[in-house]
């Protein structure tokens, strides 16, 4: 089975190839044909199943025809990370078309979101609170929305967004297509779905289970010891598939080569490789030819491998969103996962930011029996250790976290307006 069967516009097909998707995932196989027919969909699926492309692709297909520069598709997501992820995927897949999108969420200034909206977009990807704010400001007109997507509906409900969702629904045309995705189906969500979906087709992927836990650990280490620490770690730790992230293409390539020389079944995945080479690396990783993949953030975006036991941040990511994205690759589909981060003195600020986002301190670990030489891992992050992360938040960061944890809920919004 391949993507040809869906008869997507050739510009979309070209992008599907360019991002490296060759075979539709099970949810895509089930949901895309139904969504293309204009039917409502009830999708029971977790992230990691390919659900985002399952709703983005039919939306793009619809938007390649008809009026431009009016909001015709609305995608509502609970967190800014998810909204950004959807936005990025939309950007990638829509690159050859005239379709434009914007992501809107709280915790950041409205200015650039408003200017993007004013320049004209067809797709709005939004967290509920900021969406309502911008509607109230007269910046978003939802009266011509043809497709609504509610993503991670159960999480939205957990975060207290249900009243906001009801408000949003009232602003939309009754005549529309609704695509509804949820990993679980508690009573509230079932009721909401029953109310808003018309004769939906249900697609269900995998067993419905609570979110997976990923355990996080930090390994203080100077840059010159990272490689030996990694080797020692790989020798000491029972692992399955290991995905290692590096900061640069060069480091990914060299690391994979070094590991290979030392007898590990490893491959690199980085932007200087041809699409063909990249796909070979991903397929080899998925099929078990390689146990280890050393990748850069950008190159790793198309990876759809569910059983990754460890994500190792050989280099700390540049942004907290990238951290979330990286570690989201383990702990999927009923597996538990571990996320290890190597960090030096210069990474302290980023670690603090990640801890603020997680709302907890990441456990510091020292690899037993590893020769750290004169370096004392315990000497790092002393100051940070004595300060609980939440107490040191800047206003901007506080908003950022709020927006991830229900900060746009009606109660908090009304407090902000007082
Ligand atoms: P999602 O469940 O939407 O979060 O997707 C999980 C990951 O799978 C994302 O990184 C997508 O880029 C990737 N992905 C989605 N569809 C495919 C596909 N057909 N083939 C390979 N990777 C995919």
Question: Could you give a short description of this structure?
Answer:
The chain is α/β, with parallel strands linked by helices. 41% of the residues lie in helices and 16% in strands.
Descriptive report:
With 418 residues, the protein is an alpha/beta fold. The chain has two domains: 3-204, P-loop containing nucleotide triphosphate hydrolases (Rossmann fold); 214-416, 3-Layer(aba) Sandwich (Rossmann fold). The chain is 41% helix and 16% strand. The protein has helices at 10-19, 26-36, 51-63, 80-94, 111-119, 128-136, 153-158, 162-170, 187-196, 226-236, 249-261, 275-287, 320-327, 348-358, 382-386, 395-404, 410-417, and strands at residues 41-44, 73-76, 101-104, 123-126, 147-150, 177-182, 201-204, 214-220, 241-245, 266-269, 292-295, 308-313, 337-343, 363-364. The strands form two sheets. A seven-stranded parallel beta sheet has the order 3-4-2-5-6-1-7, sandwiched between helices. It has a seven-stranded parallel beta sheet with strand order 10-11-9-12-13-8-14, sandwiched between helices. α3 (51-63) packs across α4. The longest helix is centred in the N-terminal third of the chain and has 15 residues, at 80-94. The model is unreliable at 207-212 and 383-418 (pLDDT under 50). It binds adenosine monophosphate. The site of adenosine monophosphate has 15 residues, from α3. Adenosine monophosphate (AMP) binds next to α3.
């Amino acid at each position: 089975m391949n993507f040809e069967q869906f008869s997507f516009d050739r510009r979309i097909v070209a992008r599907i190839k360019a991002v490296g998707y060759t075979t539709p995932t099970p949810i895509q196989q089930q949901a895309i044909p139904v969504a293309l027919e204009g039917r409502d969909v009830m999708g029971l699926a977790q992230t990691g199943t390919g659900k985002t492309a399952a709703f983005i692709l039919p939306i793009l297909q619809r938007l390649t025809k008809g009026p431009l520069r009016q909001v015709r598709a609305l995608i509502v997501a609970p967190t800014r990370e998810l909204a950004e992820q959807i936005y990025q995927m939309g950007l990638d897949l829509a690159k050859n078309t005239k379709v434009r999108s914007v992501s809107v969420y709280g915790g950041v200034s409205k200015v650039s979101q408003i200017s993007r909206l004013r320049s004209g977009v067809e797709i709005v990807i939004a967290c509920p609170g900021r969406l309502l704010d911008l509607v109230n400001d007269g910046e978003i007109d939802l009266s011509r929305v043809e497709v609504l997507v509610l993503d991670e509906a159960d999480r939205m409900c957990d975060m207290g967004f249900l009243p906001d969702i009801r408000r949003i629904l009232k602003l939309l045309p009754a005549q529309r297509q609704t695509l509804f995705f949820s990993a679980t189906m508690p009573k509230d969500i079932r009721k909401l779905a029953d109310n808003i979906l018309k004769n939906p087709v249900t697609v269900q992927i995998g067993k419905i289970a609570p979110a997976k836990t990923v355990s996080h650990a930090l390994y203080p280490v100077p840059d010159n010891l990272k490689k030996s620490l990694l080797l020692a770690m790989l020798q000491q730790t029972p692992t399955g598939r290991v995905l290692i992230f590096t900061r640069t293409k060069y480091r990914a390539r060299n690391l994979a080569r070094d590991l290979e020389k030392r007898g590990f079944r490893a491959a690199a995945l980085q932007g200087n490789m041809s699409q063909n080479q990249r796909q070979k690396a991903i397929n080899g990783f998925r099929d078990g030819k390689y146990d280890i993949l050393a990748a850069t953030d950008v190159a790793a975006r198309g990876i759809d491998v569910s059983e990754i036991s460890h994500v190792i941040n050989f280099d700390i990511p540049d942004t907290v969103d990238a951290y979330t994205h990286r570690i989201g690759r383990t702990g999927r589909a009923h597996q538990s996962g571990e996320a290890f981060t190597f960090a030096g003195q210069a990474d302290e600020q980023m670690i603090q930011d990640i801890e603020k986002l997680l709302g907890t301190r990441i456990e510091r670990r020292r690899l037993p029996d590893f020769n750290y030489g004169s370096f004392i891992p315990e000497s790092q992050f002393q100051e940070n250790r004595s300060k609980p992360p939440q107490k040191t938040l800047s206003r901007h960061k506080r908003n950022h976290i709020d927006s991830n944890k229900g900060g746009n809920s009606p109660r908090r919004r009304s407090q902000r307006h007082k």
